[in-house]
Specification:
Distance between the termini: 32 Å
Bound molecules: CU-O-CU linkage
Number of strands: 31
Strand content: 35-45%
Shape: globular
Number of helices: 5
Number of domains: 3
Oligomer: single chain
CATH superfamily of the largest domain: Cupredoxins -  blue copper proteins
CATH topology of the largest domain: Immunoglobulin-like
Largest sheet: 7 strands, mixed
Helix content: under 10%
CATH class of the largest domain: Mainly Beta
């Protein structure tokens, strides 16, 4: 029997303030956040599910974890503690460049996705630690992370990032939202505010067994080599803020929703069943220059969209937030009845006065100035098969996980990256500790010829990329033209981006010591495992694609 939709109310995720107020003055705060094994009710009719959850205590731990609210210029310190048992609740493949704890236990490390701060607080995949810090990865430096909160206000999320385990640790529940507020920038905007009218919506897909446990296929797609590795995870149930297909009763007024796609591999193309519009005000961690009204929003895994929805414009009593993105995106199966529905809004009849507004201008940041770029890099993604028996690995520029570093950008500079996607899937490229703007998307011609050349381990320049990058151009969607930290790399296309390795609102750059470990990371965010680091080391391990 299928689970009945829209029976649970949309939960309020608990919030944790990342600051103190002492005599009216804002002061830094130190938080202790643990990872706990507990049970979580995802649906009224489903037995409680074993999960891994973040929280200040086991009792208070939630899925998603508490929303951390920080304010501009006030440091938040978090000591992340692992209280997990010795065995995982999900099957994971220890043969893929994993974090293997020799003395048992589950390696974890927390990355603040979208954060711009010191690299040693970034949650490098090899900075993992087990319960009680009994064992630590090769890049582990310290137990307390420092989030300096000096970047532009906006939305981030924290999630596990342990090498080889990221995808299962996320599936188990290790993720949460982080909001950075800056009152002198945001108050004049008069957007909907307060717990009731400004809410994160953290959306992910999961499959559940009858006993409530999370279902994940335990047989790898090539069991002789990788016993449990599955390239992409898709679940049938759509979970929002920890409940499967919840409902929310709303008033006839504007609401702000910070929508995070926390799925491992599922893209969502959101739309409202009654035609309501999204007024997009921000994308990933930054505000747009001005609001963009749109009927649908395509969100790749790990992308964030910040929207205002005006329910006073609704002509119907209910509206379903729906999804029609094929999976895998873009050429996979069409959505089913289950995964095409996300959240039901029940709109109150009574009209009311709404003092919030949608300003004509939001926040102005510098434009992408290509003339200031210090260099151009070519980043080619393609699936590489080393022998007939091996599963396909996604490599970046033909380099595996442990290859020496090739990208060593300098803090405070900008670079043009031309990302060449030779795979059949859309790959969300994510860059840590910086922001970028999407400049252009150009289709490749004679892709096969180019790919043949690339698999010989030639680079894109030697293979004369310019000869192939001359197909049709696809316009960048209006609400995706601001500063972002994730973007969808279309298959068969070259996507040109301008990456800025500093803050976007000032020329100041965070303090950075190029010799400091760990360095910077970029990777695809499908199943959050394929990654390649730059600056001090490099990898793209291919456990993902
Ligand atoms: Cu969402 Cu490397 O992170």
């Amino acid at each position: 029997e299928k689970l009945e939709m829209f029976v649970d109310k949309l939960p309020h995720i608990p919030t944790l303030h990342g600051f103190h107020i002492v005599n009216g003055v804002l002061k830094p705060k130190s938080l202790q956040i643990g990872m706990f094994f507990k049970k979580w009710k995802f649906h009224r009719d489903l037995p409680a599910t074993p999960v891994f959850a973040y929280g200040v205590s086991k009792h208070k731990a939630t899925v998603p974890g508490p929303t951390i609210e920080a304010v501009y210029g006030v440091s938040t310190y978090v000591t992340w503690r692992n209280h997990l048992p010795s065995s995982h609740i999900l099957p994971w493949d220890p043969t893929i460049s994993p974090a293997i704890a020799k003395r048992g236990g589950i390696p974890t490390v927390v990355h603040l996705h979208g954060g711009i701060h010191e690299p040693s607080s970034d949650g490098n995949a090899d900075s993992w630690f087990t319960a009680g810090f009994k064992e630590t990865g090769t890049k582990w430096t310290k137990p307390t992370y420092h989030y300096v909160n000096k970047q532009q206000p906006g939305n981030m999320w924290y999630h596990d990032h342990a090498a080889g385990l990221t995808r299962v640790n996320l599936l188990a529940g290790l993720l949460g939202a982080y909001i950075l507020r800056h009152s002198s920038v945001e108050t004049p905007l008069k957007l909907p505010t307060g717990r009731e009218f400004d809410r994160p919506l953290i959306v992910f897909d999961r499959s559940f067994r009858k006993d409530g446990s999370i279902y994940m296929n335990a047989t790898g797609n090539n069991p002789t080599i990788h016993p449990q590795w599955q390239p992409e995870y898709f679940g049938d149930a759509i979970v929002v803020n920890g409940k499967a297909w919840p409902r929310l009763t709303v008033r006839r007024r504007k609401y702000r929703f910070r929508i995070i796609n926390a799925s491992n591999a599922r893209f969502f193309r959101f739309f409202f069943s009654n035609g309501l519009h999204f007024i997009v005000i921000g994308s990933d961690s930054a505000y747009l220059a001005k609001p963009v009204s749109t009927k649908s929003v395509l969100l790749a895994p790990s992308e964030i969209v910040d929207v205002v929805v005006d329910f006073s414009k609704s002509t119907s009593k209910t509206a379903i937030l729906a999804n029609n993105a094929p999976y895998p995106y873009p050429s996979g199966d069409p959505v089913t009845d289950e995964n095409s529905k996300v959240l039901k809004f029940i709109i109150k009849h009574k009209s009311e006065t709404d003092t919030s507004s949608i300003p004509t201008k939001l926040v102005q940041y510098p434009h992408a100035d290509v003339s200031k770029s210090v260099r151009t890099r070519y980043i080619a993604m393609f699936e590489y098969v080393s022998s007939a028996d091996e599963p396909t690995h996604l490599y970046i520029n033909g380099l595996p996980y442990n290859a020496p570093v090739t990208e060593t950008p300098k803090m405070g500079t900008s670079e043009v990256w031309e990302v060449i996607n030779l795979t059949e899937d859309n790959h969300p490229l994510h860059i840590h500790l910086g922001l970028f703007r999407v400049l252009e998307q150009t289709a490749l011609v004679e892709t096969e010829k180019f790919t043949d050349c690339m698999t010989e381990k030639n680079d894109a320049v030697k293979c004369q990329i310019s000869k192939y990058a001359r197909g049709n151009k696809t316009a960048v969607t209006a609400h995706e033209r601001g500063w972002k930290n994730v973007f969808k790399m279309m298959p068969g296309h070259v996507t040109k981006i301008l990456v800025r390795f500093s803050y976007v609102h000032s020329n100041e750059s965070y303090s950075f010591d190029a010799t400091q470990e760990p360095g910077y990371v970029y990777h695809c965010h499908v199943n959050i495992g394929s990654r390649r680091q730059y600056d001090d080391e490099t990898f793209c391990d291919g456990q993902v694609i």
